[in-house]
Amino acid sequence: MNFSNTLIYWYLQNSRELPWRKTKNPYYIWLSEIMLQQTRVAQGLSYYLKFTSTFPTVFDLAKADESTVLKMWQGLGYYSRARNLHFTAKQIANEFNGEFPSTFKEIIKLKGIGDYTASAIASICFDEPTAVVDGNVYRVLSRYFGIDTPINSSAGIKEFKKLAQTLIDESQPGTFNQAIMDFGAIQCKPKKPLCMFCPFTDSCVALQKNLIETLPVKEKKIKVRNRYFNFLVIKTKDNKTILSERKGKGIWQGLYQFPLIESDKNINKNELISSDEFIALFPDETTISLFNKKEIVHKLSHQHLYTQFWIVETEYSSEAKINWSDIEKYPVPVLIANFLKEYQPKKY
DNA sequence: AAGGCGGGGCT
DNA sequence: AGCCCAGCCTT
Fold first, then answer.
1. What is the mean pLDDT of residues A223-231?
2. Is the pLDDT of residue A167 over 80?
3. Is the pTM of this model over 0.70?
4. Domain range spanning residue A98?
5. Shared-domain flag, residues A75 and A166
6. Is A214 part of any domain?
7. What is the CA radius of gyration of chain A?
8. CATH assignment at residue A291
9. A1 CA to B6 C1' distance (Å)
10. Is the pLDDT of residue A282 over 90?
11. C1' nearest to CA of A80: which nucleotide?
């Protein structure tokens, strides 16, 4: 049996039962694919169920406020996915009359959809033989064929796409694509792959040459940046606080946070209240206490955030317009959601 | 071509 | 601690 047939045979016996496998509706497939970008199935699953029940059609999603969409996305990460999802939903609803584009060439034009996602939707929903290349596919192909081209080099990206395209079963492209991804996720795992039960034991180059541990090759490593965050959790006498939206380029675009003073190291109370930024925010008398005695380290893939939450009690602040009971309506980073869970446990 | 963007699970 | 996950966008 050739590669494709062996793979599909494996898939018939080992595929995972997932809700988006029961449909070819491009709206649902699109939703699942966006959610699963750089995200494990286990993490994305509950979000998929929540989105499909709250927004059964693309029109429902298009009608929602962006803030509502972000709130529902809260905790899933890479929030530009949610903003692009919403943008594209409005485009499909308003300009395309709710009809999803049906060819790879048209699909890839949509915001938030790249080569992988366009291939997935075109193959699964419209039977177009366009091969997906995600992290699973890089791993499976680099091992099976013994290819050491770095998967994140431009040469590697082209090479693996071309190879996958020659392997795809043109009579069932969607099944082939899902099969190779499931195979990578379940069998040909990054660590401790299940080579002893593998249908490719006699043809896998990496297994024969003992290269399983070294393939695939990835060339760059990400640098981690350390940052020191001081969130000012305002409480006025009339039970209001300040939240502001993060704009611009950095992390958590579109999410809300307490006023933030960033420093180049952990600072104490005196250093905080004597800083220009603090004085600008609170010229009047305040009572301040540090909520977390030990710094909270929140790790993103590329930044480590050393965080202190300062409880700032003051008589009144003209900036404080949000009622405490309304905080939960705002989309916030997990770092802040975790704080709120401890600070006002009754709410959760 | 390179860097930025979350959060969580596994080793 | 480091790596990876149904990647994409910007510069």
1. 94
2. yes
3. yes
4. 3-208
5. yes
6. no
7. 24
8. 3.90.79.10
9. 41
10. no
11. B5
